[in-house]
Amino acid sequence: MLIDSHCHLNYEGLAERQGEALANARAAGVSGFLNISTREREWGDVVATAERESDVWATVGIHPHEADQHADLGREVLLEASRHARVVGLGESGLDYYYDKSDRAVQQDLFRMHIGVARETGLPLVIHTRDADQDTGDILEDEMGNGAFPALIHCFTASPEFGRRVLDMGLTISLSGIVTFKNARELQEFAKEIPADRLLVETDSPFLAPVPHRGKPGEPAFVADTAAFVADLRATSIEALGDTTTANFFNLFTKAKA
After folding, report:
1. Is 114 assigned a ligand-binding role in the annotation?
2. Which CATH number fits domain 2-257: 3.20.20.140, 3.20.20.70, 3.30.1360.70, 3.50.50.60?
3. Which of 58, 155, 167, 209 has the lowest tally of Cβ within 10 angstroms?
């Protein structure tokens, strides 16, 4: 049993073949999918997919690339959207200083707003961070001082030092197909350190197809390849890794709506 803990089923490349992609994944042993939103205008479609498919759940949130277009988004708007029964997480939100598509101060303000809603609702925050280790870690530590909240770093590609820092805060780490890439040696070594009860796997499809699918559009079925690679790294079976990461997913994402 496996869960794709981060996919974009309503993005081009999957939206037009959503049923086929889900069927392929189920045939590969994937039993659940977290459909991630990145901007307000897509929340309705993302949630509708989760309403239609019993093994799909949804998040609502604003990606840092979209922060400038949502600078005035009120917390009440996010809070209200989060109340839907099929919404089990917030985000993805965070900081992206690699592309800098939005003003950094606006990114930081929206990130903190998402954290506040996560704290209030108990819903985990799905965090995107790229080239922003210091500020992401500082904001998380500062906000933890105001009260704990559940969160995970999705598609982890940061330094081992950052990884250890967020693990010390109690966060979860999700590994994507990037861990299978030949140039990801440091990430592969760090993957062995992640505590078993703090580990998830994901595709971030339609992006980041793992080996042996590189060059193809990503799809949720490919989480099985990433899981097999991670299981080998950690000297365990894919069955054991699947059971552990599935339990971790439900423990993190569904208990607030139980």
Report:
1. no
2. 3.20.20.140
3. 167
